[in-house]
Design brief:
single chain, mainly alpha
């Protein structure tokens, strides 16, 4: 079975990578909720994948690339700042 990815799939995947950090952060403050406790290096790697996926979406001219690029870069630099301090 052949799977064909459109440019929007890359943009959505980038947004999922970026939103996963915020979901993990929110869940860490809810008592009894499942945790997404990953080391800082892993979060930074996930954000890096999000930036790459947003770049691919921009090259393929996705409709969502104007949203995906700034969101992915903002999250990447935020996580880099938080994990570095």
């Amino acid at each position: 079975m052949k799977i064909k990815f459109s440019a929007n799939h890359f943009a959505y995947a980038s947004l999922v990578c970026s939103l996963s950090f915020w979901l993990g952060l929110i869940l860490s403050y809810v008592p009894g909720a499942p945790r997404l406790d990953l080391p800082g290096v892993r979060w930074l790697a996930i954000m890096g994948v999000g930036v790459v996926l947003a770049g691919v979406a921009a090259v393929l001219r996705s409709k969502l690339w104007p949203l995906a690029i700034p969101f992915a870069l903002g999250n990447f630099f935020f996580v880099m700042h938080v994990m570095g301090s």
